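Bug #77: duplicate submission created two jobs. Keeping one. Sequence:
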Amino acid sequence: MSGYPLPLNPFPGFFAVARTGIFWDIDQFKIDAQSNAYSTAQNIRRTLSVAGHLGKVEIMAYGVDDGHDFKEEAKFTSFPAGADTDRHTKMLEDIRVWSSNSPSPSNLFLIMGDSAVDFKPVIESLVSSRHYKIHYVKP
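Kept job's structure:
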């Protein structure tokens, strides 16, 4: 997320201390070649902190395991190359589970390419049924 400016005051009011879930498709939003999974996840956390977020951050990453070592910075779920449908189905399932365990207000980040359009109905239902702030990050 470094180099990707967040909107002015992305965490107003209670959102600054609210739980934040980050769902990251690393096949569509690749880890920088000069970086590694661990430092990239740390950078995401640092970027949120600098932007004013003080609450708990959970990062869930999904993709082909090319030797990524997130250590304790993110939960990584590996999929074989080309398993886009399976990967996205798992992401949606995890978003639903995470949201059922996350009180309002909460922040939800979706880091992926154009497939985010397919997630809109689920994401919009979260916004309408709960007090969530949704952030879309695209490469």
